[in-house]
Amino acid sequence: MEENGEKRWNFWGMGKLNPQSKTSVRGLLMKIWGSVNKDDPRPLLPLGHGDPSPFPCFRTTPVAEDAVVDSLRSAKFNSYPPTSGLQPARSAIADYLSRDLPYTLSPDDVFLTIGCIQAIEITLRALARPGANILLPRPCFPFYDSYASSINLEVRYFDLNPEKGWEVDIESVEALTDENTVAMVIINPGNPCGSVYTHRHLKEIAETARKLGILVVTDEVYHHLTFGPNPFVPMGVFGSIVPVITLGSISKRWLVPGWRLGWLVISDPNGILRKSGIVECITDCLNMTSDPPTFIQGAVPQILEKTGEDFFSKTIDILREVAHICYEKIQEIPCITCPNKPEGSMFVMAKLNLSLLEDINDDTDFCLKLAKEESVVVLPGVAVGMKNWLRITFAVEPSVLEDGFGRMKAFYERHAKKQ
Amino acid sequence: MENGSKQIWGFRGNEELKIASEITVRGFLNLLMFHVNKDDDRPTVPLGHGDPSAFPSFRTTGIAEDAIVDALRTANYNCYAPTVGVLPARRSIADYLSRDLPYKLSADDVYLTIGCTQAIEVILTVLARPGANILLPRPGFPYYEARAACSRLEVRHFDLLPEKGWEVNLEAVEALADHNTVAMVIINPGNPCGNVYSHQHLEKIAETARKLGILVIADEVYNHLTFGSKPFVPMGTLGSIAPVITLGSISKRWIVPGWRCGWLVTNDPNGILRKTGIVDSIMGCLDVSSDPATFIQGAIPQILENTEEDFFSKIIYIIREAANLCYERIKEIPCITCPYKPEGSMYTMVKLNLCLLEDIGDDVEFCLKLAKEESVIVLPGMAVGMKNWLRITIAIELSTLEDGLARIKAFCQRHAKNNKI
After folding, report:
1. Which of B13, B214, B261 minimises the CB distance to A281?
2. Are strands B45-47 and B376-380 parallel, antiparallel or unpaired?
3. What is the mean pLDDT of residues B155-176?
4. Which of A13, A121, A299, B128 is the most interior residue, by most CB within 10 Å?
């Protein structure tokens, strides 16, 4: 009805329920980017997010590009894909992941998703029965929290221990679990911590989850991106102790996050997830949503089977080098300390010592001012659940990293508390 | 907790998901395919789905393929895309759609989605406040019902009138709406009916929506796929009467549903969607979900700007031929009637006259037996909300359509009731 010439409409937005109102990496980074001084002639140094693909040294292998072109030009993949994904892609991923497991995955255990992001969405949705809760690590990749709250799935946090290589605090997991807890999530190699868990620790996690009657969701999007002493061990190795849902994608190992091709894999030799109806929920969810482009799915077998070891080694070598630079440079800046040298993924968590700084209130303030004064973007730890820490990306050109730390040091010196 | 030797697990499936996913076209078609006789040597004739991309006559234009390859090879699009989509894509979609509007869309009105499917997901999620309801056409596209169920958004159906070219029954719309009604959905060109609405009818829809205080969701995934006398008129043309949200993609016009690249566009010159917080909510939803592949987004400007008219004309020509063929052949089958010759999209709705058939109880039984005996797949009308009707796809090679219709005729003759009068 018209009132005072102002029409009333029956629809309105979600207000407080709007997912954007929760902290998301994208949202916070946008805010920080927003404070960069547009008149600064120096290039912006992006040390805040996990996407090295713009840098020439991190260009993907031509094998992957060719595979996609071949698939597209065949004109066989312009149709809607089947719900769970193209069979050859599912087979190829099953084979690829089975190389590191003591059992063989079946293609039926593999579901194609639009990047690891959609794998997370589907998993959380499938587990979100009314009243359920899920255990997340702190610090964590913030998407888990954002998505869980948008579907009213209760989240509880267990600690990762910086003094023990960011290992899971098993006692806190046990304390948090109740009869409504459905799963615990681990991210290995770790985002944001850069940790790589040992076989021993993963086994401990598996046994704890079994004892508590919960499943393990393992986010292995950074699988094989390890450059320290510990090799990558997939959680699926322990799939006969506890059912495991493995999330992954080609985004990080092939440096193509924009291709949006990931997977949700049931690593559960005892078939418990099938019996409990979880797998059916997963397919129901997939039936209701969109899919990764068919021709990119069509390229998966070629990508997984033909990429040469030298491409992977090259990437690892660069990551090892920049992780080392990062760790060394942090040590030269008194107000930042890094308790654990990063061994995997593309990030490191560093603690801010605010008492050494003048007029910086917290981590967000630090990052906003750093962006403004030095055109360097770093993610405040509050975004990942640890206030007054920083998450620093080292997956950039070595020169960019050197430059970035040079400017951070200058920033520190400018804001250092006078003794 | 361990209970003797029996392991007890605390997780089980979320059963609410089951209800929603059972009512999709994919679900029905899978069931029908399952019934096809594996020993039948003849090829299965697929007249149930909306995806002609497998047929040689419907191959997409080389320009679209080239655009993708070009974008991929620049290596500039391997990165994550911004939440709303890459700017060049948004700009070119704004320009492309503005060609048919009396005002210019801005890039900010355009949101890239993973096909039209995700555009539907987003808008229904955004509108699903507790207690809200949405008005959907019957017959319609069942993904709307499934998605609404997922978001606990109440659905109310208004009828489309077969005797009036499947126009919206506006009286029914007014009778259904209450203060909790947030929107009505129209699909134009129509799936499953094959109708194309006139400017006059769209204007009445807009005025009704305005009167009721609701917005119009215009599913225009089949935009420009018209082959009858009526031209395609976008609902956005009436965006200053009532706010319109247009959903679309490249899937149907370019015959590339597998590329998963679509859009949600706000046609709202009066800025009502912004004021009411709908725009913020759309961004919020997109912020917590995945995106279309960046290099496919990167190819959009080239695809939209360089595709030539003769590619579009060629596709229209084939579908028109198929529509004519189908309409004529249906006339020869007594137990099936087509009330309205299709003018757009890729389908036609036809009514089953069950009293002329022996031992066929309803549309689902018809389709199951047809699949089994003749290896022809047709969608039962129940899947789209009209029991004892059938949805037949006409976007298919003409020879295959001819074959399929002949087999349907044979099936009907075999099951015809013996007229003993």
Report:
1. B13
2. parallel
3. 97
4. A299
